[in-house]
Design a protein that fits this description.
6 helices; 259 residues; six-stranded mixed barrel; alpha+beta; five-stranded antiparallel β-sheet; 12 strands
């Protein structure tokens, strides 16, 4: 991957380049030493959050061109990742676009191979889990556990307030963005609008519309299915119970409705 980025950097007007995944994790970078890793990590996180929201609002984004007084930032979305280029203001965009059409295919193959290698590697046991959400059962974990038939999630009830009263009467499930991407990657289906949850104890299964939690900077909802009271009743589950998540194949982009 580093060799491909170096090749891209050889184009006239390119200062540096990086690749990050959909969750904002830096995969590879080819920037001058002036740009430290912390700075690039922050840029990757902001890029993933902003571009993902833009796609959900406008549909597929082929190229993002941000213009500044002395520089330009060009973002090229790829399958499950993003390519960011820092360019001088004098960069020839027509030549850059033509050159990227060739280089991007090679880079996508390398990135796909890298992601596949990460998937087949055995996951380390979750020794330290994130602290549970207030009101969650003691000892609950916020880790997505991938099983043979689906992804195991922990049931987290939706807050029962005046603002969520009617939502609690509707069968629905909410996920944070990181968990939704992990499920999508596990089933290799891309974005999804509906999710099937199964209670492994009584065998009840239901298909639910999926809503994405907008703000979860502290990752409190990692590995959790935040469900309405109606959904809990339909599945016969209680807070902290495990459910198996599977994707019903379909198209469309993630919803961005809050809970």
């Amino acid at each position: 991957m580093q060799a491909v980025l170096t090749q891209i950097n050889s184009m006239p007007g390119i200062v540096g380049s990086l690749v990050c995944d959909e969750d904002g994790r830096l995969t590879a970078q080819a920037f001058p030493p002036l740009f430290d890793t912390t700075m690039l990590d922050q840029a990757a996180a902001i890029l993933a959050d902003s571009t993902f929201g833009l796609q959900s609002a406008t549909g597929s984004v082929d190229l993002l061109d941000l213009r500044y007084n002395e520089a330009r930032i060009v973002v090229k979305p790829m399958s499950h990742s993003f390519l960011l280029l820092l360019c001088t203001k004098a960069v020839n965009m027509q030549l850059l676009t033509i050159s990227l059409n060739v280089a991007i295919k090679k880079l996508e193959r390398v990135v796909s191979a890298h992601l596949e290698q990460q998937r087949v590697q055995p996951a380390a046991p979750p020794e330290a889990a994130s602290p549970p959400l207030a009101g969650a059962p003691p000892g609950s974990r916020t880790v997505v556990a991938e099983g043979a038939k689906g992804v195991s999630l922990m049931v987290q009830p939706m807050k029962n307030t005046a603002n969520t009263y009617w939502d609690n009467m509707v069968e629905m499930v909410s996920l944070n963005r990181g968990t939704s991407i992990q499920i999508s990657d596990f089933f290799v289906t891309g974005p999804f609008k509906k999710l099937k949850l199964t209670n492994p104890v009584n065998g009840r299964s239901k298909k639910f519309p999926v809503y994405i939690i907008k703000d979860d900077a502290e990752h409190l909802f990692d590995g959790k299915a935040v469900v309405s009271l109606a959904s809990m009743e339909g599945l016969g589950v209680k807070p902290g119970d495990p459910v198996m998540a599977t994707i019903e194949v379909g198209g469309g982009f993630f919803g961005w409705e809050g809970i």
